[in-house]
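Residues determine shape. We examine one folded chain.
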Amino acid sequence: MSRRLRLWILTVGGLGFAILFTAACLRLPDFGGNSHPYGDRAVGAALAHHTANVVSAVNFDQRAFDTLGEETILFAAVLGTVVLLRQTRDERQVRPTPAQISVPIRRYALTMLPVTLLVGLYVVVHGQLSPGGGFQGGVVAATALHLLYIGADYRALERIRPVGLYEIGDAVGEGAYLVLGIAGLLGGSAFLANTLIPYGTFNTLASGGFVPLLNAAVGMEVACAVVVLLAGFLDQAVEIEKEAGT
């Protein structure tokens, strides 16, 4: 495809988007109005399914299919990064040089590691009750592991970060979300419909029906994906060198 043709395609696509975006903006309600039909319906639907956190109800119940798309984008991005950053023929792997970490930084990082990990898991588990959820908690949990890189060295991080297991966890988290969606179809309802299991008691960990299960699947996928993603970049920065003369 020539450069001229690519520019024409970009121009036509951009023009179409501009027209649709402008038309949508013209139909928006006035700023600061008293009518919030979407918010009212979202809150009502969340309460009907015993989900205290309305945002999680929107993400994993009312618009669960959209969340599947977001999760799949992350999954595909990590997969593409792993493929692009794989070791090539003109590269070799070397042992990283032990880092000299000051005592205060080491103590702080090692103290905060279990705290951060616990906070991340808490945010995931309580996603249907309080602000947060699988996406936010997954990132926090993955960040906790990398405090070991700051507080110790890269070899210490490698011992608690077998990349192969996290790649499996990434795939399992993505697959679990799909399986839960298919379960809705097998149960005679719609894909990802929150109808198969009881909604539980409002404002408890077991409330929300499918919401905590989908939330946990996303938390697992996001945490593992971030670990695999950072592993690819850290390997390039710390362990991979080009052969001499290349």
